Amino acid sequence: MAPSNKFNVGIIGYGLSAKVFQIPFVALTDSLVLHSIVQRSPSPGNSAPEDHPSVKHFTSIEPMLEDPEVDVIIISTPPNTHFETARDALRNGKHVLVEKPFVPTSAQAEELAALAAEKERVLCVYQNRRWDSDFLTVKKLLREGTLGRIVEFETHFDRFRLEKPTTWKGQLGMDQAGGVLYDLGTHLLDQVYVLFGMPSSVSAKFLNQREGRVVTGGSDESEQPDSISAVLTYADTGLLVHVRISVVSVETKQPRFRIRGTKGSYQKSFLDPQEDQLRGGMAATDAQFGKEDESRYGRLCYVTEGGKIEEKVYPTVEPETYTKIFEGFAKALETGNKEDIPVPASQAAKVLRIIEALQESAKTGRDVTP
């Protein structure tokens, strides 16, 4: 065990997520200490022991889970391993941060949430895009009522990717939390949940745009989608939320948000820059980290007091950056308060209920209540 104000962190997995999105942010969080890493097969040029010679190293999971010096486990392996690994870590008395997608089913998420409560451990899901600056800009617009009552909300994750991924994102089926709905859809649906809560019903079409087919999302590989078009209905307010993911989008400015309300509309293109900056080698301590060029700002249309409709550039808010999820996680470790967990497993379970309802709708062609 680390000193009372420090928590030793063990990371399971040593891929891009661990290297780029987790280890650097652990180092930036005062109360977190990188203690150990599990990498099954280190190799020249891809070796945790070479990159981090001062920490402890394992080639299997069990010794790390049994190590009494480890306080926190970060799970950074493919999603089909998350449930069992998180369950075993909690049973061993560890706090746990799980990379998204969390687990394949809402039932598994609820089981882990209950186990964490029983063991009095912190269980958090790494939904880092809650700290995208474009999303925080949208939250600000809605919080301040700038757009009035929202009647239509459109959120996109579009790309031009004609080649199928060779990683788990393209190889695992949805029954193992693989594919576009779990990889990218989890981000979009989590943000929608944060803004609006649970929808009253959902409908979805699953597509294989690379081959030009509508698919069902069934267990056969040929029925797995690479693109999604979904509608979430909020009957109490009349709000419709459109969730769209495309791999055949030939655009220089990929759409991100389009929001219509009774007082105004907001349109935004481009993804938040943090992921590309981190992949490109920028440190999270860089003064430009998370900052967006003014040419990428969104556009706000609004109704003036005189009843005219005018348009202006609407600046993206100052970035809080992905450091916030680690700061929030560390605070929850320190206080033990469930309210301090930045992304509780109970919320991830509700997002998974939406995902399951979308799958049912794509199979049956009906609206489904999540």
How many beta-strand segments?
15
Please summarize the sheet with the most strands: 9 strands, mixed
Helix and strand pattern: EHEHEHEHEHEHEHHHEEEEEEHEEHH
Please list the strands of the largest sheet in the order they lie side by side: 9-8-10-11-7-12-13-14-15
The helix-and-strand class reads alpha/beta
Fraction in helix: 25-40%
- Assess the beta-strand content as a share of residues: 15-25%
Q: Describe the global form.
A: globular
Unreliable residue runs: none
Number of helical runs?
A: 12
Q: Distance between termini? A: 41 Å
Radius of gyration: 21 Å
* Mean pLDDT metric: 96
Structure, described:
It is a single chain. This protein is an alpha/beta fold and 370 residues long. It is 32% helix and 24% strand. The protein is built from twelve helices and 15 strands. The chain has helices spanning 16-28, 48-51, 61-66, 82-91, 106-119, 133-143, 168-171, 180-183, 185-196, 274-279, 323-335, 345-364, and strands spanning 7-12, 32-38, 56-58, 72-75, 95-99, 123-126, 150-158, 201-208, 213-215, 227-234, 239-246, 255-261, 264-269, 298-303, 309-314. The strands form two sheets. It has a nine-stranded mixed β-sheet with strand order 9-8-10-11-7-12-13-14-15, covered by helices on one side. Strand 10 and strand 11 form a beta hairpin. The chain is globular, with a radius of gyration of 21 Å.
